[in-house]
Amino acid sequence: MPHSSHRKKSVRQTATRTLANRRKASAMKTAIRRVQQAVEEGDGERLKRALPAAYKRIDKAAKGNVIHAKTASRRKALVARTANKLAAS
Fold first, then answer.
1. Main-chain phi, psi angles of 3, to 5 degrees
2. What is the SS3 assignment for the chain?
3. HEC states along 26-42?
4. In angstroms, rounded to a whole number, what is the distance separating the alpha carbons of residues 30 and 59?
5. Structure-derived torsion over alpha carbons of residues 20, 62, 73, 39, reported in degrees to the nearest 10
6. Residue 67: phi, psi to the nearest 5?
7. For residue range 2-51, what is the model confidence (pLDDT) as tens digits?
8. What pLDDT shows up at residue 1?
9. Residues 49-71: pLDDT tens digits?
10. Cα(57)–Cα(7) distance, integer angstroms
11. Would you place residue 86 in the very low, low, confident or very high pLDDT band (cuts 50, 70, 90)?
C-alpha cells in the first residue's frame, strides 16, 4: 500500500479507470455475442439491429484504448463474416 498521498490518489484513479475499461470491454463482448445469437437463430431483423451496435461498441473500445486498433479491425471482420453466414443461407 502506498504511503504518499499522490500515490494513494494514483491507486484510486487506476481502480476507476480499470472499472470503466472493464465495462467497455464487457459491452463490446455482449454486442458481439448478440450478433452471433441472431445468426444462430436465423433472425434477420435482430441482426440488422445488433450489427451496427456491435461495430459501434468495438470502435468505442478501440477509441478508448481498451483494445488495439488492429484488434478492433479484426473483430469487426469476424462479426461481418458471422453476419454473412446468415445472408448466405
1. -100, -35
2. CCCCHHHHHHHHHHHHHHHHHHHHHHHHHHHHHHHHHHHHHCCHHHHHHHHHHHHHHHHHHHHCCCCCHHHHHHHHHHHHHHHHHHHHC
3. HHHHHHHHHHHHHHHHC
4. 14
5. 30
6. -130, 160
7. 999 999 999 999 999 999 999 999 999 999 999 999 999 999 999 999 99
8. 85
9. 999 999 999 999 999 999 999 99
10. 32
11. confident
Q: Name the residue with cell 459491452.
A: 27
Contact 32, 79 (CB under 8 A): yes
- At residue 42, what is the residue type? G
Cβ–Cβ under 8 Å, residues 55 and 73? no
The rounded distance, in Å, linking the Cα atoms of 6 and 16 is: 15
CA 16 to chain centre: 18
C-alpha cell at 56: 459501434
Q: Which residue has the higher pLDDT, 27 or 86?
A: 27
Which superfamily is assigned to 5-88 in CATH?
Answer: Ribosomal protein S20 (1.20.58.110)
